What does this fold into?
Amino acid sequence: MRYVSFEVDGRASWGRVDGNEIIDLGAQPDAPEDLKAAITAGKLDMVGDSPRRARASVRLLPVVPNPSKIFCVGHNYESHRVETGRDKTKHPSIFIRFADTLIGADDAIVRPAVSTSLDFEGELAVVIGKGGRNISESEAMSHVAGVACFNDASLRDWQWHTNQFTPGKNFPGTAPFGPELVTLDEIADLDKVQVISVLNGQVMQSATLDHMLFPIPLIIAYISTFTPLSPGDVIATGTPGGVGAKRNPPVWMKAGDTIEVRISGVGTLVSQIVDEA
It folds into this structure.
């Protein structure tokens, strides 16, 4: 199944994708108020009388607009670790994003006026379906509601002010997330899923998930050891090599550019770049 969060006629809702239409499950009188609440209540498969919306008639929101926590994994592909010159580590590198950085598939990435070093990072995002603490690797995937495309767009100069990533990763309007939440039964072999980033028609990043240094079950187990995971929490699982910052010369996104994150079996997330007003 595939699910979206969206806005129509000034109302936020959520629903299930059916071809070029969206079944507006949020319009039902007894429906959970948003996709996160539906995940929490275990009502993603709810049925009933729901209006259908043409995809073109709605504005897509971030798949989960209001996650309690967003975790990002740094240097999780060998190609990216090598290009950054990072040493190998025994544990995943985890940093945090804020929910107000998220944008939907119909929104533009905003390059802030204080920086010209806007970089792309195509990633697979995991959305937690069942919460827990001290989740084992063997049980980890049963805690996943689904996956989606994610772009961990980064302001590299602000990221490199110190050895802490937080400033460069948390400007508003820099984290496209969507277009759809895809349940795992839609994906035949998760390890063979390919993550590709395309900037203005040129492939910049490409790798399959089996090139991750720390696979998804390990990441879930690791994070849930130091903090409880809740339904709707998001884990961006890392980006392959090929980022703009490590090219010679560096390639920075600018107003008018188009960046696509293509993930096989999951979807394509297309974002335009605009300058901050």
